[in-house]
Amino acid sequence: MRSTLLVALAGFLASVSAQTPPIVPLVAGVTGQLGDAAIVRDNPVGVTYQATLPETNRSSIRGFISGTALANGTGVRFTLDFRGFPSLDRAPYIYHIHDAPIPSNGNCTAALAHLDPYRRGEQPPCNATAPQTCQVGDLSGKHGNITSTTYSASYIDLYASTKSGIGAFFGNRSIVLHTFNTTRLTCANFTLVSTNGTVPTPRPTGGAGSPSPTGGAGGSTARPPPFVSGANEMKVSFTMAVIGGLMMLALLMV
To answer: Is this model's pTM higher than 0.70 or not?
Structure first.
């Protein structure tokens, strides 16, 4: 009797195992720990934040970057105008939205790391053909580095947001310009420069939504629970089934 039960249980476990997909781990530095970045579809329409680089002796770079929510609330149009980069020997120059604002002393190091609410990390570099897998704040990674002493551009980013209170919000953060080896050259805070007070009807953003910020830049809320893939959930269910089968076998053999 016992041998018959053991054979039956072994067959059952082999059958379930064959149908259970393996755990598919997240690829470090490619997709964030909380999944891909979500498209933000409910930005307050017409709201504009702008960061203007300071006039200081520490850097020759001048200019601004502004971000305006689009008329349908989906995405942000960034407009950039930078000039005065010191030398092409240090190019390509890169720029990012950083998590924290710049203090009054102008210390760019205080900006902390890139805006990264999905916990992707900086390596490997952003793949511009899959911007949803990049850090939200990695604007040059998604839209192009600076390879000249002057640079002007305008583009739409679907993952940054003018909506206060979510992780993708950049209005209380900063922009930092770097050399290719990440040396910080100059920086500035985003400030609100325009609003018409219109908020579109919220629509689902899909995926993990917009988690709270990774640093203390203000406006943060509690983090969402850790990301668990469907494969992991199935693995847990399989484990519970094995435990239940072993318990039943033990009772029958008493």
So the answer is: no
